[in-house]
Amino acid sequence: MSRAELAETILARMGIAGVGDGVRDEDGWRPGSGPALTSTCPTSGHELARVGAASRDEYDVAVEGARDRFHEWRMRPAPVRGELVRALARELREHKQALGELVSLEMGKIRSEGLGEVQEMIDVCDFAVGLSRQLHGLTIASERPKHRMMEQWHPLGPIGIVTAFNFPVAVWAWNAAIAAVCGDPCVWKPSPRTPLCSIATQHLADRAMAACDAEGVWSLVCGGADPSRWMAEDPRLPLVSFTGSTAAGREVAAAVARRLGRSLLELGGNNAVIVAEDADLDLATRAIVFGAVGTAGQRCTSTRRVFAHARVHDELLERLRRAYATVKIGDPLAEGVLMGPLAAPSAVAAYLAALRAAQAQGGVLVCGGGVIEREGNFVEPAIVRAPPPDRFPIAREETFAPILYVFRVESVEEAIAAQNAVAHGLSSAIFTDSVRHAERFLSPGGSDCGIANVNLGTSGAEIGGAFGGEKDTGGGRESGSDAWKAYMRRQTATVNWGGELPLAQGVEFL
Ligand code: UN1
Hints:
The chain is 38% helix and 20% strand. It is built from 14 helices and 23 strands. Strand 12 (271-275), helix 10 (281-293) and strand 13 form a beta-alpha-beta unit. The protein is globular. The structure holds 2-aminohexanedioic acid (UN1).
């Protein structure tokens, strides 16, 4: 069976036929009349499908549809809005296997990670359904007699969601599930590399919307950079949630800021693991291998750097080398495979260029470094023994590939400083059995990242916490905790239930 036929078979299992249409608005599916997108299988290099991207007019229709729906949706009680998300979770549970396999096929992550991605969607839906009964404000003591002051959270408006290839469906769900219960319809612009995943997900969303009389809450506009720019510049979208590169995020943020809109940015990371002298090396090794090799190093949370204490450095490096030798590379849907292909030939080129730079700057290749001779974008996961960080600028860059730089340090203090000395600030971890080291790492002068873990790796966060990071990661927070507040507008409301009109600050007037 060809890969394109396999895609068709998986989609058929989900009850989906004919996936050329790249636009889904309030009125249904349309073949986008913008430039066609080609979905290419990273495992074979063969075409999976062609999808028509949205033209500007089609994009406008989708945004107008979301606007129309907003006026009704914001007035539905939040727990009733939650029913839509519950219906989506039902669809996702039913089709978890097929959608997970489609993610593997089109994006290249292994089956278990594809299924994990769909599970992450289900989890955030469950969270959002509960949240729909918990969207709460404060009551605040008023200085004026017989006055009540309170804070309420209202729906914000239609929002734009731009997602990346590496989590082609989960990141939409983080935004779309929370936004929907917050009262905001969403227009989704997925990565041009993974249109099939987004089309399949939208079909499941269609069924949930049909069951809840909610057409137009979730719509889809496939496309490349154009629809992202349209969203960024579009005053009809008070919030744009953008996941992608720091360079692209900067453009989006600037364009959104020019119109005084809100952006929620999730722009990658350069994540480190610190291994202290008293670390459990077994745990550390497993966590580092999953962090660096999982998803072929193409998570924004992937582990890219290790700072190992001199006392454990050599042993850790040896354990990593041995563990890397057991990693089976190949078809991400095949049994036992732990690493699939990179997304595209350009990613293979970036991998090779980074390794060339690493070696030119004094890094020593411990293992990997080669391109695998077969169809598709396969490389070997690489470990590089790194010279001191100030002489090794390549490690300050995020290369979306399975390359791990291992540094030798003399203290946790030195490791924390080196860990923080990069532009990004997404995820971080320390392996230690010392309370002092752990607390030092978690203190205000410790890790400067949005995520800081003790005795677990940098990737694979759960949805219950707020997800995101600082500095060049963009500062946004998505998913759990109170990340919902980004999708709502805050209103301070004061009610005078007395017969006088006292003014605040004791001002006398009239
Ligand atoms: C991403 O790579 O864009 O924490 C998201 C993780 C996943 C999400 C990654 N839950 O690795």
